[in-house]
Structures are given as C-alpha cells and as structure tokens.
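Dear colleagues,

I hope this message finds you well. In preparation for our joint manuscript, I am sending the Cystathionine gamma-synthase (Propionispora vibrioides) sequence together with its predicted structure, so that both groups work from identical material. I would be grateful if you could confirm receipt.
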Amino acid sequence: MKLSTKIVHCGVGSDPRTGAISTPIYQNATFRHPALGESTGYDYSRSQNPTREAVEKAITDLEGGAAGYVFASGMAAVTAVLLLYKPGSHFIVTEDCYGGTYRVLDQIFANLGFTVSFIDSSNLTEVQESIQKNTAAILIETPTNPLMKIADIKAIACMAAQRDIHTIVDNTFLSPYFQQPLLLGADLVIHSGTKYLSGHNDTVCGAVVARTAELGERIRFIQNSTGSILGPQDSWLLLRGIKTLALRMEKHSANALTIAKWLQTQPQVKQVYYPGLEDHPGKAIQDAQASGYGGMLSFDVACPSLVPQVLSRVRLIQFAESLGGVESLITFPAVQTHADVPPEVRDRLGVSDCLLRFSVGIEDVEDLIEDLQQALHNEG
Ligand SMILES: *Cc1c(COP(=O)(O)O)cnc(C)c1O
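The corresponding structure tokens are as follows:
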C-alpha cells in the first residue's frame, strides 16, 4: 500500500466493537479485569490506552519501525530516548539542533554524567573523528534547525552500527511522508508531533519509533516507568492531524520552494537556506534519502535592522515560535528558539542577528509572497 493511503487510514478499524471509523477517545484511567489473572489487554492508561495505542500503531507503521510510543511532548520523547543510556555515556549531536535538545543535554543530562560533542553532522569526517570509546549514540537532525544542513543518514548509521553505536534521527522537519530514517539504518526516530504530524498548532506531543522490537520494548518500559505518556484527547488530535499529512506536506514543500526562489531574487535578502535550491550543498544527499524538501526555510536579511521591521510588519504570517502547522510562522532564532545556545556557538553556526526562520504554511503562495514583499520593502 502506498504511504499516502496508509496515512489516510491511520486508526481506522481500531474499534471492532462499534466499527467507528474515527478511533474513539477513551477518556479513561482504568479498566475492569474479566477475572483474576485476566486482562482485556488494558489495565491502566499509563500502561496502555486504546486511543494512544491507535496513534502509536499509525506512527510506527508510517516510519517502518517495530514499535513506537507517543509522549506528552517532543522533549519528553527526547528525554525517554536519552534515558536508555548509562551515566558516563558520550553522544555526538548535530550542533544546530533544536534549542530544547541542546538545553536538556547541556543542563539536565550533563548532571547525570553524559558528555556531548556538538558537531556539524553534514560533515562525515567530523562525525567519524568525534567517536570515542564510550560513544553510545549519534543524534542527528536533518535538515538542521535553523540552517537546513543535510546529514547523510545511511552513511552515519553504517559507521555507527560497525561500532555498536545507536543512530537516532529527529525526523520532525520532514515527517515520515518525506523521510523514513529507520529504513536507512537508523535505530530510533524521534518526533515533535507538535509540528507536522499533528499539523494544526493545536497540541503539544512527541513520538519515538524503534527499528527493533527489543529497543522498542526498552522505550515502552521507560515510558511506563516515568509516565510521560500522551493523554487520550491529545492522542486523538495527533491521529486526526496525521490523516492529512500527505496533502499538507506536499503543499508546505511546494510553497517553500517557490518562496525560497523568490527570496533569492530580493535585494534585502543576503542568503536563503533551503535544501530544494539547486545551490544547496546538501541537495544531492537530500534527493537520495528523502522524497521532498519540507516546509522549513531560513534566510539572512541584508542588515539587522530589517529583522524588527519584518517581524513587526508581517500581517498574514504570524510572528511566533514553533513550526509545522498549516499557518505560516516566522521567528528570529537568535532570540527566540536558540536563546539557550551560547552566543559564540550561535556565531560559529551562523545563527546570526540577521537570520529569520520561516515555517511556510499551506496558504496560497501568492498571498505569502505579497506579505513578505510588503514586510521587506521600505515604504520610501
Ligand atoms: C519542537 C521540536 C522539538 C521539541 O518538541 P516539543 O513538542 O516542543 O517538546 C524537538 N525537535 C525538533 C526538531 C523540534 O522542532
């Protein structure tokens, strides 16, 4: 079955008792036991809940994994994955990663004896040279946030597997519709389901999918033990969001490519970062490992004073953090999403005081361009 068909049928048929097409919301904490030593398969909603289970099955299937679990947020999903590893473990992590991932490693897991090499994961030599005796996992984002660099998932997973190191891919930016890291050899996929999976800026959630049943079981144990589950209402919203993932991703991606090309022609714009542009250094790898470019792009405006101008003048495009919803959002990473990354690191990465990140929505692209145009141009 084709992926876009699977996407539409997520959760359908999950309620054999009633035949409900839309999986019901089982707003329920506990379940009656049929008899001593017997279970319906559901005992207590931290451990299993039918609504959550339906969306977990759906995401697992879309990512091509053996088992998957949904969490209270993307950060809860990241945290559950990091709890797989012992104190003293070393990690290799994409340097321009999500700001919250940087923060949890730097300020929470550092206290548990984790060490991290933040590296440019688009540079294979740098990844290889960062491997230490105690390296437990390589955690990558591709495209990266916010500079849209591309890492070669297959090459990294191959290098890691030879040394018994896990490869973990945060697949939030592309979603399984465009990229399926487990099929390229990754061990674990993480999502902020808040973004493209749910897609409507109306719920915060996360997911982890494991390539093997064994690793999936360890994630399930951590989820049940630490309790960072997604509730039934939010599980339903996530499931409902996923059903239109294919349509949304196609539109996000088409809009983003048109806008990226348009921005390149604007005198107020110095540089555009989008993996679908012919001159993007990662385009060949992107074309080989993904079936689309996604809806995220960044651009440098010509001078810092244009940043407050654009952010205050946009009308249709909302100045807000987050990404991946149907509405277009623009943000200023240096101050908003990447404030916890030290200034010298931001400078090295290119997260400058001229960089704007744009989550391109599914509006009519002409309206979006018109809004950007009036926001960028000086009314003489
Ligand atoms: C938003 C985001 C996260 C964190 O997810 P929350 O749902 O906000 O906790 C992690 N990784 C990436 C790439 C993100 O964009």
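For the figure legend, we might mention the following. The first helix runs from residue 3 to 8. Residues 102 and 341 are 7 Å apart (CA to CA).

With kind regards,
E.M.
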